[in-house]
Amino acid sequence: MPEISRMSYEQARDALVETVARLESGRTDLETSVALWERGEALAAHCTAALDRAEARLRRPGAGSSQDETETETD
């Protein structure tokens, strides 16, 4: 398993979905369930942080304006 901090948002989201499915299956012992829960918490935190960073970028003044895109294309 790749280290969570090195995962992209999409990788972490997919791993979180898989982790939740394993937990919901009820086919794991207590120790494995606790480990899965902890991994799920870490994956969720990683995803939240990535979304927060993306939102902060979008909230910056001038982010996403057509003028910024035009300046980039003509530079």
Characterize the structure shown.
The longest helix is centred in the middle third of the chain and has 30 residues, at 30-59. The protein has helices spanning 9-25, 30-59, 66-74. Residues 68-75 have low confidence and may be disordered. The protein is mostly helical. 8% of the residues are buried. Helix content is 75%, strand content 0%.
Please report the number of helical segments: 3
In percent terms, what proportion of residues is strand?
A: under 5%
Low-pLDDT segments = 68-75
> What does the average pLDDT come to?
88
| Strand runs, count | 0
Q: Over the alpha carbons, how many angstroms does the gyration radius reach? A: 18 Å
Instruction: Give the SSE string.
Output: HHH
Approximate shape:
elongated
Main structural class? mainly alpha
Distance N to C terminus: 42 Å
**Quick one: biggest sheet?**
none
The percent range for helix content is over 70%
What's this, in brief?
With 75 residues, the protein is mainly alpha-helical. It has three helices and no strands.
Mind sketching the topology for me?
Elements: H1 9-25, H2 30-59, H3 66-74
Give the key terms.
mainly alpha; 3 helices; 75 residues; elongated; disordered C terminus; 75% helix; single chain
